[in-house]
Write a structure and sequence with these properties.
Layout lengths: L2 E9 L3 E10 L3 E11 L2 H8 L4 H20 L4 E6 L1 H4 L4 H12 L3 E3 L2 H13 L2 H7 L4 E6 L4 E7 L2 E8 L3 H8 L6 H24 L6 E5 L1 H11 L6 E3 H12 L3 H8 L3 H21 L3 E3 L5 H12 L9 H15 L4 H17 L1 H4 L3 H13 L11 H11 L7 H13 L11 H16 L11 E5 L2 E6 L6 H18 L2 E6 L4
Parallel strand pairs: 1-4, 4-5, 6-9, 9-11, 13-14
Antiparallel strand pairs: 1-2, 2-3, 6-7, 7-8, 10-11, 12-13
Length: about 500
Amino acid sequence: MATHIFAAIDVGSFELELCIYEVSSKNEMQQIDHLRHVIPLGKDTYRTGKISYRLVDEMCRVLGEFSQVMKTYQVETYRAYATSAMREAKNKQIVLDQIRVRTGIQVRIISNSEQRFFSYKAIAMKAVEFQKIIQKGTAIADVSFGSQQISLFDKDRLVTTQNIPMGILKIREILSKIHVDNETEQAIIEDMVDNELYAFKKMYLKDRDIKHLICIGESILYLAKDVLNGRKTDRISAEEFKQFYERLMKMSLYQIEDLFGVNEGYAKLLIPGVIIYKQILEMTGAEMLWVPGIRLCDGIAADYAESVKCLKFTHNFDDDIITASRNMAKRYRCNTSHCACIENYVLAMFDAMKKYHGLGIRERLLLRIATILHDCGKFISLRQSSTCGYDIVMSTEIIGLSHGEREMIANVVRYNIEFFDYDKTDITVAKLTAMLRLANAMDRGHNEKMADCKMSVRENTLVISTAYPGDLSLEIMEVNAKADFFEEIFGIRPLVKQKRKV
């Protein structure tokens, strides 16, 4: 039985975290050590835009200690990820270089969508509970120090996921500039959170029936301990949470410190945290809260375990990405039937040309998403649809995709119409663009005339065979117009062959 010792490092907005895991090929993963160090990186970033040298020095010292711990455990592989505080810092490249030089640890900054996707995978590790809960209307509230993410599920499918840039630490930084009593502070936080949630509620909730709220984030791990009060369960009724909230709001800061065993700085952060969860609970109208007790490091480890084939999820994450993309296309009034038609074309094309394009299953997924969203820019401007489409994709996070992957999709959407600029993008974008352009040409009249087509490569020709009995003049003309670019990229020229019945 193959066993791996893996380490996950989270360089967060308020703490550094190291978790050591034992990952086995029997679909098992066990945490064997956990170290935390509180360091307010976000406080510097959100206030000044930079991480101070004093904190960089402290961070390097702690990460150096983490490195020694990993050596003690004989860690085979590690992944160190930084989130919003580092992501938004103007001096992030200097900080990352200092960490690398002084500790030997390579830290990678991950996008918000990647960060939330890791947490999502950690929840999905609890397969039985997760699959059961998301059969009915469910919301995931991922409240971190930098922001909050709300994801909606219905009938085992991800409906939407949206990031709200109003996290616990950002709220605390805003409040540090004013001096008010506890009751007024509570009211201010509630108003701030409600203001941020209003647009989400209006656009995505409407008449949606939410039964369950899955709560994740550092603060909920502390808060839930008191709500559960020693009970061997991770479920909290809405009424229990509201009673706990009312009791907590009457406590002094000293009492909160004593109750949760935290210092003053952390106690101050628990107040905005519990208010955010309470406001989301009221907005969704959920009846039950599930606190699975996961951390970002658990998601990082789950992603690693899946990559080395030691962990297999029962939930299909690619389906969630596709569903979220379809909902996004629906929001921007894309032509659903046309998009579905050319999606079939590009996938058939991609599979027929495996030996010639050298791309993998991830690029196949990105091509599908680009195809689903290729017309979204028309919602804003018919004249500049390509530029507007690029801006829409770049402005909308799709959970599970990195910033680089989202940019790749955005460029395919743009160059589907615009003149292709080889100097501004890479060959993978060119390949995906060529396939999308050709598929789009095959349904130029939006009549799905070649829905029965078969594709195969013969003697440097992509043969598109169809038995459609009617006129294909428009489609053939458009395919020929796109043929030069397609041949330039792949060295293969497309050809439409219309089978005639004798």
